[in-house]
Automatic annotation (TrEMBL), chain A:
Taxonomic classification: Bacteria, Bacillati, Chloroflexota, Chloroflexia, Chloroflexales
Protein name: Short chain dehydrogenase
Keywords tagged on the record: Cell membrane, Membrane, Transmembrane, Transmembrane helix
InterPro entries (alphabetical): CPA3_Na-H_Antiporter_D, NADH_UbQ_OxRdtase, ND/Mrp_TM
Single Gene Ontology BP annotation: ATP synthesis coupled electron transport
Keyword hit for Cell cycle: no
UniProt family annotation: Belongs to the CPA3 antiporters (TC 2.A.63) subunit D family.
PANTHER family: NA(+)_H(+) ANTIPORTER SUBUNIT D1, NADH DEHYDROGENASE
Annotated GO MF terms: NADH dehydrogenase (ubiquinone) activity
Methyltransferase listed as a keyword: no
Gene Ontology CC: plasma membrane
Topology in the lipid bilayer: Multi-pass membrane protein
Main location: membrane
TM region positions: 6-23, 30-54, 74-97, 109-128, 134-152, 164-186, 206-228, 240-259, 271-294, 301-323, 329-349, 370-393, 405-428, 449-472
From TrEMBL, chain B:
Family per record: Belongs to the CPA3 antiporters (TC 2.A.63) subunit C family.
Cited PANTHER family: ANTIPORTER SUBUNIT MNHC2-RELATED
Record's bilayer topology term: Multi-pass membrane protein
Transmembrane spans: 6-21, 28-47, 77-98
Alphabetic keyword roster: Cell membrane, Membrane, Transmembrane, Transmembrane helix
Main location: membrane
Name of the protein in its database record: Cation:proton antiporter
Keyword tRNA processing recorded: no
Amino acid sequence: MANHLFLPLISPMLASALALLFARDKTRMVARVIVLASIIFNLIYSIWLLWVVGNEGIQVTQGAGWEAPFGVTLVADGASALMLCVATLLMLVTVSYSFASLDPGYENFFYYPLLLLLLLGVSGAFLTGDIFNLYVWFEILLLASFGLMTLGGSRPQLEGGLKYVVLNLFGSTAFLVACGLIYGTVGSLNMAHVAERMSSVTNPGIVTVIACLFFFAYGGKAAILPLFFWLPTSYHTPPVAVTAIFSGLLTKVGAYSLYRVLGLVLQDELIRLAPFVLAVAGLTMVVGVFGAMAQMNVRRILSFHIISQIGYSLMGLGLASAIGLAAGLLFTAHVMIVKTALFFIGGAAEQVYGTGDLKKMGGIARREPLLSIFWFLGILSLAGIPPMSGFFGKLALLQAGINQGALLISVVAAFTGILTFFSMLKIWNEVFWKKSYGDMSKLPRVTPGLLWPGAILVIISFALGIGAGGLVDYSQMAGAQLFDRAAYISSVCGSNGCEAVVDLALR
Amino acid sequence: MIFLLSIAIGSLFAGAIFLMLRRSVIKLILGLILLAHGAHLLMFTMGDGGVRRGAPPIVDYETGAVAPGTADPLVQALILTAIVISFGITAFIIALAYRATQAVKSDDLDDMATTDRL
């Protein structure tokens, strides 16, 4: 029993309420300090949690002291601790990029409270051990993201935002229906309890229906193949900082929920559906990267790459084994960092030029050499070239794929890596390398505030590549924990399982 | 009763999908509202009746027997939560759609495709 799992939820909640009070021109610095303090607290906490989970195993907090299957449970295992840590790190970097890049109008209209509520929803989704509670956290993070997406109210934002809201709402309704069906089938919503009772469901058809509904709901939020259309139509419309944090967090929460609910709770069904999941994964990779090739706008190209990378995360799930999930987690953690870094750097170039159109940009390599170096290192990492972290993410996935005989998906994954590099080189050529057509001397310079958030994330990616051993070990531990249902059930409900707790309570 | 409810849920979902496939923004929103109602009713049917395996959480303290006439309170709590959430989001989406139709000067979804073009 560990009561500290509430801390990363309380801190952004309180801080967003406080920052709301100071969202005025005169007191802007107070709001900034509150926001920074809360996020730094969360970051320190999540690093500590990473260490605690690594040493002592799964941490569990029972909400209000209710025993496990009755109350709401918060659970931190390796996967949630890893995701929480990366998400908080990205939030810290995003906030500092926002300090340097945003109009004051945004800050007066509650930009930071919304950002903190997004962090609250994301942290809650990573930590919860209850399926309906996961739905509620999803709604919190979605509502915060709706606000961030449309804050500013320009026409592209409203058009893109409407599609984003509608498609995510549709996915949420499917999620709700699946929650209802799961309660109707097994009579519980606690993940450990559901996992325990799933094995004794007599009607296998309903379990397939539930698994497919969850796959649809989370897949829509993660932007898998037939459900990704909301992403490239909306992600390039808000300010750069918002796009960057969305790319780092939102689709990845969908992928994490797929891992948690299909990989742990509905594990038998996942093993049955694995070929289907792998097929969707492969198609998502290929369609995403081909979609990116057709685009001529920095952030739209990067948006399509998000879709392609989600295919890799899904491949880890589709391998349906502890090694597969471990590799998927490793890759997801890496891509969250690198993708956000690329959005920051590409966004900085876009902000200097005032446009993201590849045809109108050019010549940045000569004018901003530092920015260009970090961009190039970033695309090396995204494409999976050593010594950057992307190499180890892809290596782990390919190793797991080949070990399990999933050759086709492994070939597709390797091939997509080459295409990714090719497509990123297009941005390199057009934005950084080629000569500028216009007069560049009048354009503003990239300020350090715009440069360092992306740079520091690229450096972290490089460090994770150099010290990949620790991360690989941790992700393997997390993958094993994620796939081990018996250990999860016994750490949430005690060694006799949840059913014993229910029997004791009902006598 | 469960039979009538199933028909009601089915018609709500069918009507919602039909409305969401239209091009008008207002019909899209009406479709989303109907969809949420369908999902809530579906959760409602999950409380009692044949499909459920778990016993209601309200039991007699001494004997552990289920008191006669009690309905499962958990589904009602779940629906209440879901209704509040969908109410809030509906309010947001109506405001958003209003601003979008003002900016685009049309309520036809086909006119809102500028961000999709290359």
